[in-house]
Specification:
Order of helices and strands: HEHEEEEEEEEEEEEEEEEEEEEEEEEE
Radius of gyration: 21 Å
Distance between the termini: 29 Å
Largest sheet: 24 strands, parallel
Number of strands: 26
Length: 347
């Protein structure tokens, strides 16, 4: 995951317009105009970048989607030179207004804690938005909520990285859709001097016809990893997937590379149908292949209820569930596995 330079962000966004400190609702429309005082319902801003400059901490940006399917919101009015894209280092909600807004910004959205205000935890909520070829990146955001959003045609649609915060809540609520992306959801836990905690909730979400870039690292549709090998305390990860459907993807469903973590996981009403997983010689770790769900953790407690795993294919043997752990407690109830083949207990 490529992330932005903190110094540049502080220079560009650290000095917000103080005269707009108490603007809690900013409206944006393709028929609006960017000014120092735009953002009212009668005089909306034209660009998301300007709205994010003006809105106060914990404020709301309302995107009027009228006409945006033909003329989507983009990256216009961005003042950054070295870091292209749209940046925000404050807690904010960005939501649809009147019609579904379409956003197309290849350089992406970048949300992070302001280094000068590291004591303030950033919470981001994005609701009712269609992101076309637009990556979303979150650095040290304590809470991320993606509600009723569509993510399509992006290279790494959603990525989150935790470096200097103790806990992260990551929530995708449906009906949400990921379609035709390279890498869908990627979470990385870094630099742990003490135990971190991560809570991931994904509900009513469809993953359709996505794939992964195998040349970068081993990934699934949902990838959670850490680069911490000797933490001061065990990381604790809680995952809940409810009513998730994966059809026609070229990737595993979940890949957990969390060798220093204790996980508690629940997968309820998950459908994994007609996906393909290709094992190549470039696979860096033999563990992370030949299964739709792959977990490498210290201690695993996982429950699968009403799991449908059928007609998934691979150029080698393929399982549905594979777990590596020093200690594992796995419960599988009311589930079916069709068309999977793992010969002789290998790998």
């Amino acid at each position: 995951m490529d992330y932005f330079n903190e110094t540049d962000i502080t220079q560009n966004l650290g000095a917000q317009d103080h005269k707009h400190k108490h603007v809690y609702d900013v409206y944006v429309s393709r028929h609006g105009k960017d000014t120092s005082g735009c953002g009212s319902l009668d005089e909306p801003c034209r660009s998301i970048a300007q709205a994010l400059r003006l809105v106060d901490w914990d404020g709301r940006v309302h995107l009027n989607g009228t006409g945006t399917e033909r003329d989507p919101f983009g990256c216009e009015n961005v003042t950054h030179g070295q870091n292209p894209g749209i940046f925000a280092n404050k807690s904010v909600t960005m939501q649809s207004f009147q019609a579904t807004p379409y956003v197309s910004c290849v350089e992406g959205f970048h949300f992070q804690t302001n280094p000068k205000e590291s004591h303030r935890r950033v919470s981001i909520t994005l609701s009712g938005i269609v992101f076309q070829g637009t990556p979303l990146r979150f650095l040290d955001c304590s809470c991320v909520q993606l509600i009723n959003c569509t993510h399509q045609g992006a290279k790494t649609a959603v990525s989150a990285r935790a470096e200097n915060i103790p806990s992260v809540h990551f929530d995708i609520q449906g009906p949400s859709l990921f379609r035709n992306n390279y890498n869908c959801v990627e979470i990385l836990l870094k630099n742990s001097s003490s135990g971190k905690s991560l809570t991931v909730t994904i509900s009513r979400t469809r993953f359709l016809e996505n794939r992964v870039d195998r040349h970068l690292s081993v990934k699934g549709l949902i990838s959670i990893a850490t680069d911490v090998r000797k933490p001061a305390g065990l990381m604790r990860v809680q995952i809940s997937c409810q009513e998730v459907t994966c059809i026609g993807n070229q990737a595993p469903f979940v890949v957990l590379d969390l060798s220093t973590s204790v996980t508690k996981e629940t997968y309820n009403r998950v459908k994994l149908l007609n996906n393909s997983v290709e094992s190549t010689a470039n696979t860096k770790n033999e563990r992370f292949k030949d299964s739709m769900y792959i977990s490498s953790v210290r201690k695993s407690t996982a429950k699968f209820v009403d799991l449908r795993c059928a007609n998934n294919t691979s150029n080698q043997d393929l399982r549905c569930v594979k777990i590596y752990a020093q200690e594992a407690k796995v419960v599988i109830e009311n589930s079916s596995f069709v068309g999977h083949n793992a010969l002789n207990g290998r790998r």
